[in-house]
Amino acid sequence: MKRIAFILILMLALAGTVTAQNNRTKFATDMYQAKHEMIIQDLGLTMTQQKQFMPLYEQMEREIYEVNRNARALANEVEKKKNPSDKDYEVAASALSNTRMREGEIEAKYFDKFSKILSKKQLFQLKQTEAKFTREMLKKRKK
Asked: Helices 47-80 and 86-114: crossing angle, nearest 10°?
């Protein structure tokens, strides 16, 4: 009987974990979609621009996400260690510190590609819209 109860509890815990992961994935997907829709609308992208720009923009977002994910993974590894060495701290701190620089390098690489698709005004508006989206999400989060 105890064994059945344990298995049921384990199954419920796993189901809860899967549900939480699905909710996070759905939330992230919804956020990206809302951001992309805002960009399309605010920049007034034509269908041709959308087809050329959005795949590049999504690729840039994935690269930036990977940089941040890798840095967070290193930091998490150090936090989990019982006695991290100075070298462990140095590697993790360096990765965390360099994320913004790496993000900037990625954005610069894509800026050149974007400039072949977007007008100068749209390039400017892109950064404005990204900041606007972030502000709106932070406002919603506070509520």
From this structure: 180
> How far, in Å, CA of 29 to CA of 40, rounded?
16
How many domains are contained in the chain? 1
The domain of 118 spans: 2-142
41 has pLDDT over 50: yes
Query: What's at 117, amino acid-wise?
Result: I
DSSP-derived 3-state class of residue 62: helix
Q: Is the pLDDT of residue 2 over 60?
A: no
d(CA 115, CA 123): 7
The conformation of residue 108, written as its DSSP 8-state character, comes to H
CA 124 to chain centre: 21
Q: What's the token pair of residue 74?
A: 């290193």
pLDDT value for 62: 94
What pTM was computed for the model?
Answer: 0.75
| Joined tokens for residue 135 | 């502000």
Q: CA-to-CA distance for 22 and 8, rounded, in angstroms?
A: 21
